[in-house]
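User: Design a sequence. Structure:
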């Protein structure tokens, strides 16, 4: 088949392809990528962009990594896919073994799925089925946090912030859950017990209805890139234990080192009853996610008379994705990932510090490899995206936020180009 010219491709794309969170009537400009290597995206016009987004936070080792390429080639020559119902294979078993070993105890059971949103759906169903199996049929509600984000499928949408989140349009058709006020104490702030009052009050009043609390540990991602105190997480764990409610932690964005610990919940020294992982799991090569849980949860579900958990994605445990995930985890654990993340955190603090003096900036916050600049009004996406590309960087703002979550292999000089682009673009004026 003859390859389309660039102009023809872009015209077809504009007329027929619906990109994430976009309009088909007045779509944003898209930039054709022809290759990617290390931290660079190469555009069709020859320009190279330093990727500050890690392709939505997943490409932690950079693009086109020889170790991950080798793992993909070796597995695809053997078996690209096989159904997981009634069959198993080495890549999935090896990956499960690694995850059980690395995640905080007592995560012992591993359920594979094909995206982060689906792993959240699985977690919700696990929590509800757990209580159903124990005869507590009233416990089918979830308690989530305002400013939270957990995905775009129906169950996941139902536990995203119902007002400030991106799914307000669907509020009328989604299950109704409880929402506690978002934490106000920042990551390094002194603890204020009042911060947990809203969540504690809802649990005290409605624990007989609530199957689980679900939250993003330490970092609320797409709901506002907010960092909160580890003590909030510790108190949540205590309250869940007191009121007999399960705790689901959505580590899809924070897992595999983003905050400076392998998993964000380790910042608080606690473990959940159910944990969701995705994004960086395969180093950004393949779509894969997992939901881990305890033996107590799996035993209850398995002993309810039916003996089965009611979920089974077609591409569950895909061998190709699992093989790459194994290589990605090995690559991370063999390297000085903690030192790399500390360096990136220091470089972010230095590079973004000038933003604190700029007129439109409300806050600058940094944790691990996450750097966030919050403005006092929404960013003009069209102008901002064009200016960032002209400066040789790929940064994707949303709402009032300019943020970066670069690959762990980024150098100080490359990161300085990203942070300088943010400072300059704010100075030039990009708000609506």
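Assistant: Done.
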């Amino acid at each position: 088949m003859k390859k389309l010219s660039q102009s023809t491709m872009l015209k077809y794309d504009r007329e027929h392809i619906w990109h994430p969170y976009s309009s088909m009537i007045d779509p944003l400009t898209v930039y054709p990528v022809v290759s990617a290597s290390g931290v660079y995206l190469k555009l069709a016009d020859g320009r190279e962009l330093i990727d500050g987004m890690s392709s939505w936070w997943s490409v932690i080792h950079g693009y086109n990594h020889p170790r991950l390429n080798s793992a993909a080639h070796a597995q695809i020559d053997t078996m690209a896919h096989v159904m997981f119902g009634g069959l198993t294979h080495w890549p999935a078993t090896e990956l499960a073994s690694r995850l059980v070993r690395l995640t905080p105890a007592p995560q012992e059971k591993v359920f594979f799925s094909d995206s982060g949103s689906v792993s959240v759906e699985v977690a919700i169903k696990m929590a509800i089925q757990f209580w159903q199996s124990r005869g507590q049929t009233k416990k089918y509600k979830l308690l989530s946090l305002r400013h939270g984000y957990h995905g775009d499928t129906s169950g996941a949408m139902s536990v995203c912030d119902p007002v400030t989140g991106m799914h307000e349009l669907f509020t009328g058709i989604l299950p109704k859950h409880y929402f506690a006020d978002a934490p106000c104490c920042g990551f390094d702030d002194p603890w204020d017990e009042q911060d947990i009052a809203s969540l504690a009050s809802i649990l005290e009043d409605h624990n007989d209805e609530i199957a689980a609390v679900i939250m993003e540990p330490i970092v609320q991602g797409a709901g506002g890139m907010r960092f909160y105190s580890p003590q909030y997480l510790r108190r949540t764990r205590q309250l869940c234990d007191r009121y007999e409610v399960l705790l689901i932690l959505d580590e899809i964005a924070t897992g595999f080192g983003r905050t400076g610990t392998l998993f964000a919940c380790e910042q608080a020294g606690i473990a959940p009853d159910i944990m969701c992982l995705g994004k960086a799991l395969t180093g950004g090569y393949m779509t894969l996610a997992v939901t881990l849980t305890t033996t107590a949860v799996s035993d209850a579900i398995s002993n309810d008379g039916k003996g089965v958990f009611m979920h089974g994605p077609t591409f569950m445990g895909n061998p190709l994705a699992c093989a790459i995930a194994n290589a990605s985890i090995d690559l991370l654990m063999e390297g000085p990932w903690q030192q790399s993340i500390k360096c990136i955190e220091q470089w972010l603090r230095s590079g973004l510090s000038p933003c604190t003096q700029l007129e439109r900036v409300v806050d600058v916050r940094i944790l691990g490899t996450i750097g966030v600049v919050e403005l006092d009004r929404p960013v003009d996406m069209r102008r901002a995206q064009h200016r960032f590309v002209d400066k040789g960087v790929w940064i994707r703002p949303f709402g009032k936020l300019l943020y970066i979550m670069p690959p762990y292999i980024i150098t100080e000089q490359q990161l300085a180009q990203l942070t300088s682009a943010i400072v300059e673009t704010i100075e030039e004026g990009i708000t609506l």
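Residues 116-133 form the longest helix (18 residues). The longest strand covers residues 361-367.
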